[in-house]
Design goal:
By secondary structure, the chain is mainly alpha-helical. The chain has two domains: 16-63, no CATH class; 65-113, no CATH class. It contains six helices and two strands. It has helices spanning 18-22, 25-34, 50-57, 68-75, 79-86, 95-114, and strands spanning 37-39, 45-47. A two-stranded antiparallel sheet has the order 1-2. It is extended, with a radius of gyration of 24 Å.
Length: 136
């Protein structure tokens, strides 16, 4: 089976074709093979190799997720601006790390509390005793 070469001429994430949505994998392969760090028409970069993405994520001194400068002209001082600049994915350490830990801790406890006791080694055959009512 032969694979037709994929042209990356004019490739722009803002104007993806129906063909891309139907099968994006040949484009991904072409990006990794011939243009793994691609400068996009809007000036941003598209990284298509895992090692490159990992290097960027692990270098907060040169790369940032902070979108305040980019989003202020787009959204002004609006609720959308507040959302996009305080959201976990658009923040760097230490705020990102602190919020991620809180979410992980909440997820752990909510999962542990919602898991039936039989899955935790207990018994579900006896009903849970109600808390005693205290009047004041």
């Amino acid at each position: 089976m032969s694979v037709l070469p994929v042209s990356l001429d004019g490739f722009d994430l803002r104007t993806l074709s129906d063909d891309f949505y139907a099968d994006p994998y040949p484009v991904y392969a072409a990006l990794r093979r011939s243009d793994p760090i691609r400068r996009m028409p809007d000036g941003s970069y598209l990284l298509s190799r895992h090692a490159d993405v990992e290097a960027v994520y692990k270098d907060p001194t040169r790369f940032s997720s902070d979108k305040r400068v980019e989003f202020r002209p787009k959204y002004g001082d609006s609720p959308l601006y507040q959302h996009h600049t305080t959201s976990l994915v658009f923040n760097d350490a230490p705020l990102h790390t602190r919020v991620r830990r809180l979410i992980a801790r909440w997820q752990f406890w909510s999962t542990a509390c919602s898991t039936p006791s039989s899955a935790r080694g207990g018994s579900t055959s006896s009903p849970i005793s109600p808390l005693p009512f205290r009047s004041r």
